[in-house]
Amino acid sequence: MNAVTEGRSAETPANTYRGRCFCGTVELSVSGEPAAMGYCHCESCRSWSAAPVNAFSLWKTDVVKVTRGADQIGTYQKTPRSLRKWCKACGGHLFTEHPHWGLTDVYAATIPAFPFKAGVHVNYQETRLHIHDGLPKLQDLPKEMGGTGVAIGE
Ligand SMILES: [Zn+2]
Ligand SMILES: [Zn+2]
Fold this sequence. Notes:
This protein is mainly beta.
């Protein structure tokens, strides 16, 4: 059994990937293809995740389904643009809703069976961990997401 099939079940479509929090109280699934994947280097992501970068996968909000433990999900909203969700039982982080984009960032680590493939680094001007992988490094965000779209060096 490989990592991809492990995340699927018999009754869900082939492109559905299951995820869970650190303790397993909260389970979720995503279906189809994400709108974008990459790494965010912003201060908010670093502080919230307690990690030097956040591996994000952005999905249309309606394809992200909480399948177990919805009542155990806490929300923290520092700004109206990000509703950060975590499991109240273990403190494990799950996803962040971005209502103004109609997208939800499901952290790559939450859906381990999903074949995550980064396409871009965003908010690289705030980086604390330079990554030399040849992918585009945007100073902030793509133009279509409200940023400058300007690329900077690794
Ligand atoms: Zn948990
Ligand atoms: Zn960020």
